[in-house]
From TrEMBL, chains A, B:
GO terms for biological process: polyphosphate metabolic process. Belongs to the polyphosphate kinase 2 (PPK2) family. Class I subfamily. This is Polyphosphate kinase 2 family protein. Residues 44-264 form the Polyphosphate kinase-2-related domain. Keywords: Coiled coil, Kinase, Transferase. PANTHER family: POLYPHOSPHATE:AMP PHOSPHOTRANSFERASE, POLYPHOSPHATE:AMP PHOSPHOTRANSFERASE-RELATED.
Amino acid sequence: MSKVTIDAFRVPHFKDKTASEGKNGSFKLASYDCAAKPFSAGGKDADRQQLSDLSLELDVLQDRMHAQTRERVLLVLQGMDTSGKDGTIRAVFREVDPLGLRIAAFRAPTPDEIAHDFLWRVHRHTPAGGELAIFNRSHYEDVLVPRVTGAIDKGECERRYAHIRHFESLLADTHTTIIKCFLHISKDTQRERLQARVDDPTKHWKFDPSDLEARQYWDDYQAAYEDALAATSTPEAPWYIVPADSKTHRNVMVATILAETMRTLKLEYPPAKHDLEGIKVK
Amino acid sequence: MSKVTIDAFRVPHFKDKTASEGKNGSFKLASYDCAAKPFSAGGKDADRQQLSDLSLELDVLQDRMHAQTRERVLLVLQGMDTSGKDGTIRAVFREVDPLGLRIAAFRAPTPDEIAHDFLWRVHRHTPAGGELAIFNRSHYEDVLVPRVTGAIDKGECERRYAHIRHFESLLADTHTTIIKCFLHISKDTQRERLQARVDDPTKHWKFDPSDLEARQYWDDYQAAYEDALAATSTPEAPWYIVPADSKTHRNVMVATILAETMRTLKLEYPPAKHDLEGIKVK
């Protein structure tokens, strides 16, 4: 195992007292190197082996949680286009029984979703007792996109941060462990990956011209992410910065964060409800 | 119109500073007379006429809101068994187009509902833009029943009050006007109404022996209501005490509160989206 700890990549906890400043002190997104591989085991082969081991462990942990039907886990994945949200889910959960997973992807809101508050559509997909839910994009889109496009002002954005903190506190109060990962890629990496989608016919379906438009606002999105992560990283729902220029490293790190967190939940198969001693099934 | 104002029956607003005391100063449920008829127009006939007028006005207000698709109204009805929640809905909305109403009744939670936080099941029934939603019982059951049965302790109850305030603040921030009515009946009135359910074969279906069990905890429920109303009456989601021993008065008063509130929303039919001048439909 690597000696680096996941704590070093946790966004400092939001403190109410700094709310009026709108900033979380020292946190700077740019200070994290997208190309770093702090959780790499040394090489690609070793990393793949580690990922495989972690995925198998996640399957065991998830199975115990499912049997216990008490704890819930919510993994939120956010990141710029091409940061690898889909790929992360595929790789990290390769060995995990899909019966115990609840994966929800959030795209541009529908008219019915727009007609409600911005947490309405995500609330219904939160995990039930024993479930591991994965949000591929999430309610955080609603403090990123409308902020960059100017659809909401600073005051509304701050109110939404508060609504998010309260909402996640409600979930945490009901045995929900929340883990939020920002898949951190460089602007160069995005260029390469978008170009690959243009050049490779099997990736054409993933390309949307609007991605190029969003790319023009790269700096604005980085700033919006920096503020949103700072305002919503809490002890009960922390954000982690995942260097994600390397796909292998990204997968290992997300799997590590999830496994380390789930290990603390004391997940055990529950005892038998009846005295089973001596029972012979005929 | 009566000279009494609905403000006189609004539960004083919860103030954070008194949270540590767990009490909302002067508010006492017992100080409200269940048999009072402050909104009566004088007699039964006059009251029925007034209710009819108000219901017709609510239909107009609701139609404008539906056309505007911006404002949302949420009416929460709570009260002891036989306090008349069903009857209120039937009488107040007699003249209102059911197409614009969304009525949700909440009974004992299902296993799927229990497996989530207590606001999960109500959030999905909150009104969309242009809708008037009515909650027949609500998320308040979860700070009443488990408190009286001892399923949750005082600390958990206080946390739930806070979750409710935050949740209702989220809704209010999205153009939702929240009106909460406590239908206030006396213990004697409940006895008469439960006895009628026993004696009248057409009301047998409404009788449940567990109602008699809950009646044994009458004082505990009154205390639980007093605390819950005090902790969750806010400027954006006020509680009203509705004297409800008289069914006619109860209906007139709920209709009055709703109409007075909706009149302040500046509901107007929106202007034409196109220049309609001179268009002749052939």
